[in-house]
Write a structure and sequence with these properties.
Length: about 500
Amino acid sequence: MRARSSATMGVSLNLFSLLSTMVLLLALFVSAENEKLVNSRFVGTEELQSSKNHQWQWQTGYNVKPLGLDLKNLGRLFGYHSFPCSCSAQTLSLQLDLALTSYDFYFFTSDEALNEHAVDNPDEIASMVDMSIRNSTERRNLGFFSCATGNPVDDCWRCDPHWQLHRKRLANCGIGFGRNAVGGRDGKYYVVNNPGDDDPINPRPGTLRHAVIQDQPLWIVFKRDMVITLKQELIMNSFKTIDGRGVNVHIAYGACITVQFITNVIIHGLHIHDCKPTGNAMVRSSPSHYGWRTIADGDGISIFGSSHIWIDHNSLSNCADGLIDAIMGSTAITISNNYFTHHNEVMLLGHSDSYTRDKLMQVTIAYNHFGEGLIQRMPRCRHGYFHVVNNDYTHWEMYAIGGSAEPTINSQGNRYLAPNNAFAKEVTHRVETNNNWKHWNWRSEGDLLLNGAYFIASGAGAAGSYARASSLGAKSSSMVGTITAGAGVLNCRRGYQC
């Protein structure tokens, strides 16, 4: 009996020794890999890397001491009020891995053929929105990260209480024509800690302008609440995400955002208001280029000759010209979950009736709330293809949707509440036509028309012309109130669902 026990003990010791050796080898491997991560990955530019204020740089790798992040700040980064926290080392390593992987430095040329992204079959993309909505409902039934809103964008990420660890998942939640906009998903984080804009030619590191002009992909976040008053247009570079979640960021009382001849931009979680005309000045658009800018109109967001753009969960109001304008061959755009208020000409999509290159334009307008103080252009379209789906129109003074130059407008599952003015009940408005509008493809499918609102459809067969891939329609208009309840900037706090 004793001999058998000794033999058993020997086998156990051998197994323990073998397991210990394996654990040691694994630890050495992980340590080596982590050292590679620390040595090869960084945030921002060399100027940022050499800055003394390392606390506002988010780093990859688990060895944070050489990177200037003390344990207290590291804890705050992951939503803990104090640190060391009660979590285990394994848990922290897992959180670090989830939060800080996939930030390798990739470079892209900025002279891509930006307007080669129009899809062959726009109705097919419209149906993808429908499919996304149905998939959202299925996820809700399965209880997988769902807020039970039926909004496929929000149900994709908002219910995760650790959203701040997984910010870049947002880039995988797009829908519609702009669904492939990755923004800065494949780049580093850049943390804006300075609201200033002293020099549009030589912006300071740590400012929003310095972030958006960089050549590499960047996911731009903010250290704290701030109001940014821009001296001149904020001219963005390709592959950028501006992510205002978790703080209160206003771009206001000066110039605003210009997206010109670039691709892959996500703008999320900003208050954009009181934008003013600026210009007749030199402005930097990349680390290697600045040039003369003529007078800008004072749009909130101006999209010019660009593609793969996603504008989501922003609050926009009271700008000198449009809140969002997309012109000059821009395409592959989604405008979703925004809250528009107090403005005249809300949204222009298309440069002019004579600019036929806008026939490539394809824009999805989904889950937005068009609120108080709006007058017209929600949107005003030219030439292209526009899918207007599950929006809440609670206010307009002249009309909601207008157009010229034969645009295709596919209105599905919206809620249109007409004003009390008996002369402004019509949802639609054809601009500067000679009765040719009867051939334009405009349809209303499943829309809820309230307080005397009416939609004048047109086109050969009206409904039949849209039957190819999108005839199933969108979510029921009776759900619009729920779907758009979170429109505009969200109140997101670390450790809680947004």
